[in-house]
Write a structure and sequence with these properties.
The protein has 214 residues and is an alpha+beta fold. 45% of the residues lie in helices and 8% in strands. It has eight helices and four strands, in the order βαβααααααββα. β3 and β4 (171-173) form a beta hairpin.
């Protein structure tokens, strides 16, 4: 019997995974809301929230990397990513709320997340000291972590977009069309389904809906 002949119940589905994000992307918002809702609802996952810069992914081959250019924090999405990383590293208990608030600033409120004041207000709404977080961003540590984690994702897993789920054996770009709203069981079920496809269905390489729901 080959791995692909086994049933889902015969293949252990990972409880530890990473998922990439950039606050610019609405599909990243959808996926991360499912993951956050699941964690809040008691899902037994060990999740690493990994930044991936869409601005950097659009740099032409051989071009100067975003983080090596003048004023890298002013590039699309970069300051917001650095703010999220700073909270993740220094205030991990507040990261879920801050993470959701930064996505909401862009996609629910339609605000310009290149604007430091927009980020400060979003973090304040999440009961995080936004001014303090932005001061941490300026020391460059979060930007360096962004660079390291983005480049590691590309090198180790050929990550090219968000959200990418990275499991024990492979990584997959996943688009979820809905948001979990208040349905925590549905959020957990959705993420579990993604993890099953990721780990237990290695023969499913690409599954893409050709017609979008009306």
């Amino acid at each position: 019997m080959t791995p692909d002949d086994r049933t889902d119940t015969e293949v252990p589905v990972t409880r530890r995974f990473a998922v990439t994000f950039d606050y610019l992307c609405p599909f990243a918002r959808n996926a991360h809301e499912h993951v956050l809702a699941g964690l809040q609802g008691g899902a037994d996952w060990e999740v690493t929230f990994t930044p991936f810069s869409l601005a950097q992914s659009h740099v032409e081959e051989g071009g100067t990397a975003i983080w090596d250019r003048a004023a890298p924090l002013a590039r699309p999405g970069v300051r917001a990513l650095a703010a999220g990383i700073a909270v993740r590293e220094r205030l991990p208990d507040r990261f879920p709320a801050a993470h959701a608030a930064l996505f909401a600033a862009r996609h629910d409120r339609g605000e310009d997340i290149k604007d430091p004041e927009v980020l400060r207000r979003a973090l304040d709404r999440a009961e995080v000291d936004g001014a303090q977080v932005l001061s941490w961003v300026e020391d460059g540590v979060a930007l360096e972590l962004l660079r390291e984690e983005h480049e590691r994702g590309v090198l180790e897993h050929e990550v090219w977009g968000v959200p990418t789920f990275i499991g024990a054996t492979r990584a997959a770009f996943v688009r979820l069309l809905d948001r979990p709203a208040a349905d925590t069981p549905a959020a957990i079920d959705t993420v579990e389904h993604v993890l099953t496809l990721l780990e237990a269905r290695g023969n499913v390489h690409e599954f893409k809906q050709t017609d979008l729901p009306v």
